[in-house]
Write a structure and sequence with these properties.
4 helices; globular; 185 residues; 8 strands; single chain; alpha+beta
Length: 185
């Protein structure tokens, strides 16, 4: 979904730009995903699993453009200059009549910006976007040891709907459960 760029202010008073991203932002987005995936185990892949080749950039560009062109989905990022420092995706769970009322979200913020209120800005935006797009249920998954994210989601009105033990298996053999959460809009 095309969203006009707008200025937001972090808790520290710093000004940032929030806007929808598209194919032109593919390389920036992959850099962001590499960094956040490398900084923490909370993402669904490791940093070294994020492709950075010309073909990876091209494929990511197609995916981002598809989301940008879809009025019911978005990939929205917060920028500091030209660098993506936070991102939220709102994607439909299904396009059929039985599930078109449901969307899922994915949120990430660079580690050095944790605590700046960017996650809250992104979540508020995503909830309003989802309502405007006609969704009535928003869903997400969060690792059971990600206390900060769980706190944010609870603050935003999400409730737990289930747990999957051992959903993530880290390279060192550690297993971490995933909590499913939802919010009725």
């Amino acid at each position: 979904m095309k969203e006009q760029a707008r200025e937001i202010t972090g808790k520290n008073g710093q000004k940032y730009t929030m806007k929808s991203i598209n194919a032109a932002n593919a390389e920036q987005f992959l850099d962001f995903m590499y960094q956040v995936s490398d900084d923490t185990h909370f993402m669904s892949r490791y940093g070294d699993e994020v492709g950075k080749s010309e073909n990876d950039i091209k494929e990511e560009g197609k995916r981002l453009q598809s989301l940008y062109d879809d009025s019911r989905q978005t990939m929205t990022s917060i920028f500091e200059g030209e660098k993506i420092i936070g991102n939220i995706a709102v994607r439909c769970v299904g396009k059929g009549r039985k599930t078109k009322h449901r969307c899922e979200i994915g949120l990430g913020v660079r580690k050095e910006y944790h605590g700046a209120g960017l996650g809250t800005h992104l979540m508020k935006y995503a909830i309003e976007f989802a309502k405007d797009a006609g969704y009535t249920c928003m869903e997400l998954g969060v690792l059971e040891d990600n206390d900060k994210a769980r706190g944010l989601y609870k603050k935003m009105g999400f409730v737990e709907s289930g747990r999957l033990p051992g959903a993530f298996q880290l390279d060192d053999g550690t297993e971490i459960g995933e909590i499913s959460m939802y919010k009725i809009l």
